[in-house]
Amino acid sequence: MLLKDKNAVVYGGGGSIGGAVARAFAREGAQVFLAGRTEAKLEAVASEIRAAGGTAHTATVDALDAAQVDAHAETVGRIDISFNAIGHNDIQGTPMAEMDVDDYLSPIVTGARTNFLTWKAAATHGAQVILVFGGSGPPVGDYSLGGLQAGLEVLESMRRQFSAENGKRGIRVVTLRTGGIGDSIPADFDGRDALVKSLEDMTMLGTLATLEDVGNVAAFVASDRARTMTAATVNVSCGALID
Ligand SMILES: NC(=O)c1ccc[n+]([C@@H]2O[C@H](COP(=O)([O-])OP(=O)(O)OC[C@H]3O[C@@H](n4cnc5c(N)ncnc54)[C@H](OP(=O)(O)O)[C@@H]3O)[C@@H](O)[C@H]2O)c1
Questions:
Q1: Is residue 238 part of a domain?
Q2: d(CA 230, CA 132)
Q3: For residue 87, how far is its CA from the centre of ligand 1 (angstroms)?
Q4: CA proximity to 81, closest of 148, 136, 35, 16
Q5: Domain count along the chain
């Protein structure tokens, strides 16, 4: 097992990305700590992990609140792996020129704030690896991403500086750079099939990464087998994004 005896905190562990990565970490032997706002969502993922023989704990934590993040980190004790996949409060579909400034800034501020808080908690609790989700992407002409892409770019800048400042402490920081993940789009999402098709058409491989694919890559990058990787991005976009 890649992650035997590791403690892994997953913020947003009740969500699609966080849940998938938590399942993969647990499958590889990590003790998983799921943190999020809605206990029922966390418990649903934790139950699946336990049913499969893994170990999972849940805690209600607002990952935008410094005191709550720090108090939770204290209860975990040693944090080997930290992964933040909380929603970024982004508003998509409105052109920038027509957007309210606070709506535009929302994902930038949310992403920077929560990642700052959870990375700081990880660093003060012995972290070996911090995984970031999203990564840089090209501008999109025919769809309005609001402030999401700018928010993900801010995380990339933070990732570079945080890895430089903390490498000597043994902390690696790696971004999973993603195109769309088809099975993370809710089944009842209006226009789902057309969106999945358009995302597939953007890939070189003609297929999208699945949630399980993302979990598998995250588990490898979090493991000691990837001990040489830091200040880096790992591309899980099936060729939709070119490095
Ligand atoms: N799916 C993709 O293809 C893709 C691609 C690129 C980037 N992303 C980004 O990745 C992130 C996660 O995506 P997802 O599909 O997993 O979303 P999701 O299913 O909505 O999950 C997000 C989770 O974050 C939790 N959360 C939100 N605010 C929180 C807070 N302040 N404190 C603690 N937990 C909080 C939510 O819990 P509650 O419901 O209890 O609030 C929810 O369980 C999003 O920011 C998304 O924009 C996704």
A1: no
A2: 11
A3: 3
A4: 35
A5: 1
Report the pocket of ligand 1 as residue ranges, CB < 6 Å: 11-12, 14-18, 36-38, 41, 61-64, 85-88, 90, 133-134, 178, 180-181, 184
Q: State both tokens at 192.
A: 């789902």
Instruction: List pLDDT tens digits, range 37-56.
Output: 999 999 999 999 999 999 99
Flag whether 152 is in a domain.
yes
> 170: domain CATH number?
3.40.50.720
- Contact, 240 vs 203, CB < 8 A? yes
Question: Is the confidence at residue 197, as pLDDT, over 90?
Answer: yes
Measured in Å, residue 86 CA sits from the centre of ligand 1 at 4
Pocket test for ligand 1, best of 9, 23, 37, 114 (most atoms within 8 A of CB): 37
pLDDT tens for each residue of 68-108? 999 999 999 999 999 999 998 889 999 999 999 999 999 99
**Residue 138 is encoded by which pair of tokens?**
């090209």
108-122: pLDDT as tens digits: 999 999 999 999 999
Residue 237 belongs to some domain of the structure: no
Dist. CA 142 → ligand 1 center (Å)? 24
